[in-house]
Amino acid sequence: HDSVSNSYGCADEYGNNLTDFINDLRSDLGLENLPIILMQILRNISGTKYTSKVIDGQNEVAQTVKNVKIVDTSLDGSPPLSMGDAHFSSEGMLKLGYEEARLAYEFKDAI
């Protein structure tokens, strides 16, 4: 994601490219309803210019593509429990893991 979020063109097309990737994956596997859980990239990664465009693309895909959900890495709006700008602490990872499991459970009847 770092290289994508440093190029406006790549960041601007992220949502379309992600949608194509998901559709191709599902087609290749023959699983049109395959659940997908995205992990939102962090907003505070140093040295990236267009992170918000990538996040917008991820959110758009989660809202418009069937059986796609996204884990909000802001951890309920509070600052990320991180160690530096791109890594989570143990507590942060646990919170993200619980959220991912919660979203996965919502897919229990998807396939």
Give the helices and strands, then pairings.
Layout: H1 8-12, H2 14-29, E1 36-39, H3 51-64, E2 68-71, H4 90-106
Parallel strand pairs: 1-2
Helix pairs in contact: 2-3
Written account of the structure:
By secondary structure, the chain is mainly alpha-helical. The protein is built from four helices and two strands, in the order H-H-E-H-E-H. A two-stranded parallel ribbon has the order 1-2. Strand 1, helix 3 and strand 2 form a beta-alpha-beta unit. The longest helix has 17 residues, at 90-106. It is flat.
Gist of the model:
The chain has 111 residues and is mostly helical. The chain has four helices and two strands; from the N terminus they run ααβαβα.
Q: Which spans of ≥5 residues are poorly predicted at pLDDT below 50?
A: none
Number of H- or I-type helical stretches:
4
Specify the biggest β-sheet.
2 strands, parallel
Structural class: mainly alpha
CA distance, first residue to last residue: 29 Å
Oligomeric state: single chain
β-strand number? 2
Strand content: 5-15%
Q: What is the succession of H and E elements?
A: HHEHEH
| Spatial strand arrangement across the major sheet | 1-2
The whole-number mean of residue pLDDT values reads 82
Rg for CA atoms: 15 Å
* Shape assignment: flat
Secondary structure: helix percent: 40-55%
Q: Keywords for this structure?
A:
47% helix, two-stranded parallel ribbon, 111 residues, mainly alpha, flat, 7% strand
